[in-house]
Amino acid sequence: MEAYDCLKAIYLERGYRSRDIPRLILENNLYGIDIDTRAAQLASFALLMKAREDDRRLFSNPPKLNIIALQDSQPERLDAFSQDLASTNIAQADLQELLDLFEHSSTFGSLIQVPEALAEKLPDLEKKLKTASESGDIFSQQSAQELLPLVQQAKLLGKQYDAVIANPPYMGGKGMNTELKDFAKKKFPDSKSDLFAMFIERGFVWCKDSGFNSMVTMQSWMFLSSYEAMREKLLQDRTIQTMAHLGARAFPEISGEVVQTTAFVMQGQHINGFKPVFFRLVDTAQDSKELELKAGLNRFDSTVQDDFKKIPGSPVAYWLSNNVYDLFESTLFGEHFEVKEGLGTRDDDIFLRRFWEVALYKIRFSKGQEKWIKTDKGGAFRKWFGNQEYVMNWESNGFAIKNHRNPDGSLKSRPQNSQFFFKKAISWNKVGSGITSFRLRDDTLGFNDAAPSIFGDELESTLSMLNSKLFEYLVKIQGGTLNVTTGIIKALPFLGLAESYSISKRAISIAQYDWNSYETSWDFTENPIIRTEQPNLEQAFNTWQQQNANAVAEMKHLEEENNKLFIDAYGLQDELTPVVPDEQITLTRADREKDSQRLVSYALGCMMGRYSLDEPGLIYAHAGNQDFDASRYQAFQADADGIIPLTEMHWFEDDATHRIREFLAAVWGKDTLEANMLWLAESLDKKANETAEDTIRRYLASKFYKDHMQTYKKRPIYWLFSSGKQGAFQALVYLHRYNESTLARMRTEYVMPLISKMSAMANSLESEIENSDSAAEIKRKEKELQNLHKQQAELSSFEEKLRHYADQRISLDLDDGVKVNYGKFGDLLAEVKAITGEK
């Protein structure tokens, strides 16, 4: 409709009669091609109605529209067509070429290109077919009528136009069928990665040299290395006239960051020294993009198109100043460092584990021949240090991974660059969320393909540059927002500053201390609240909270000083600000509720023997309870069997709630015990009618395991055996202390005694009901008894299943990981589906 209005204005300006203009536009100026018949019909209808507004007599002699839906040909009918049209002197070779060209029209669509030799024959072919359709016998008429639409679509596809306008489809290689993928490789080798890119190239074949190609497409062609050859040809042979760089959320129908678009007009020929006009709307809110574009805001028009070639890969980085272009005259990262992709197992469930899943003595923490090695696997957005929690099966120098194959015998894994294992490096997350974060890694780890890495000298000062606003800015120039490849990093300038070394060292130290303050670090030594050595829990938390706030403030100051150092050094004060938003300081924040949950988790770890108040770090994380040394737990005794009941009532003296009291007394003394219990309970959402012990018991019985699952990423180390929804019996078992006799011990030491205790309680309640004179009390007791009977029934059923599994004397192979081992106990365990993915 916009094109119709524009053409109408041109005709009026040239003095044409108003009533003649609609037919002239429809028959001579507007052409449309689609693969969907209904879409072509709707477009035709809309144009006719638009023209009818200007010429009420239009339908008395309807115009011939140039809008078609492409039709598939039938090459297998070549002989029949040739026989029917024998009298027309149409060469069979010409028919065959026409039929072959359109065999997959509904798949290839307008990407089909008409060979020049065939295009020259089309007028004669059309003339002969029209003659046959009008004056031939019934067979030649029918064949001619079937072939004429193919000739028409060949004519429209083979024409050249003054303007090409499209919003082409977006489809990457994964979505293409075999025919389309092969067609793309053969016909569009530089743009085969996505349909939209192929349509950009195809658009210029339609264009006259002086014509214009105008499209709305994904923005990825402007930056990504996969479009580098296409981009360089466009910049060499064509001219960007204007572009509205829309970025994410350009259309209300599409949310999220994945679909990021640009709208452009390019001329079919190159104009030396031309300065395109760009409008940068990538950071503009969705509902403001159109308004700002119409107002001409965020306009960039000072960059010569040819200057894009100064940057490796020729990204269309139109917003850069000359100062930034000058940076690329420096040594590039790829010339200064080894930048490497990591190993790809292609089956992480087989070859990778969280370090807490396997036996500690099988993990190589320095040099050695243990089965598991620490490995870097990327992770969440985190700067300077951290995201180190995986181990990888590297037994016999990675033999299993290096020989991991598909069913057809081809190599499935990608065991590349293992010669760089156990070397100090900087790594980052290959897949991110818009800002890339870099971290230092020591020489005791391997690395996977999700954590590409940089190797070389001066890594600390290099890290400060990588985590600066300057480098973030440069990464975005290369299109590195959601996927930052080694190629992107290699093509960026190395701009290290020796003065940044001290900043980096301090930032690494703060981030490392923060990372190691939590149980999911293999270098965790002690809960940070206890580490403050304050006289009671409240003061200890307040001290930790202040320490944490100080660390966050110092890190923010360091990062902003670091940014200022690089911005000033390279004269980019007009482009960048050193300010770092609080949410980009990637340290864990102190939080009373969460830190109280972590304290409870640490207390349970001490109960289980994983930790000890007498020694820092992991104490017992082996297998099968073998070589468990009870003498290492003097200040607070570890549980004798690694079974800790979590019940809603105080049935057992060694249940978790009672032992929490003992733990708090062991850490801060008996004098402050009640105050500490109350403070902890209030942190865990104490209700008004509860005692501190009630709150802690409720938390342990109903919420702790969900928190534990979250902390340990659905690979829990304390397993919750549960009788069911009634909560009759629950107990935690420490994975590393479980052995073949654990279930039998759970049954004889806990479940069977609980059955007796419940029976006695039921008898007591029945007696109280019989002897009571209060209707209200009787009603309350009857409800209590009813609930108890439900628990008894649940516990009885659980005891039968427990006996069945206990008799099997199930053993665990920790090397198989939690996901496999957790599924060996049927429904004795809670959250089975969440962990194993199965019922």
TrEMBL record:
Gene3D superfamilies: Vaccinia Virus protein VP39. Residues 541-568, 762-808 form a coiled coil. The keyword Thylakoid does not apply. It is an enzyme of class 2 (transferase). SUPFAM superfamilies: S-adenosyl-L-methionine-dependent methyltransferases. GO terms for biological process: DNA modification; methylation. GO terms for molecular function: nucleic acid binding; site-specific DNA-methyltransferase (adenine-specific) activity. InterPro entries: BREX_1_PglX, DNA_methylase_N6_adenine_CS, MethylTrfase_TaqI-like_dom, N4_N6_ade-DNA_methylase, SAM-dependent_MTases_sf. It catalyses: a 2'-deoxyadenosine in DNA + S-adenosyl-L-methionine = an N(6)-methyl-2'-deoxyadenosine in DNA + S-adenosyl-L-homocysteine + H(+). This is site-specific DNA-methyltransferase (adenine-specific).
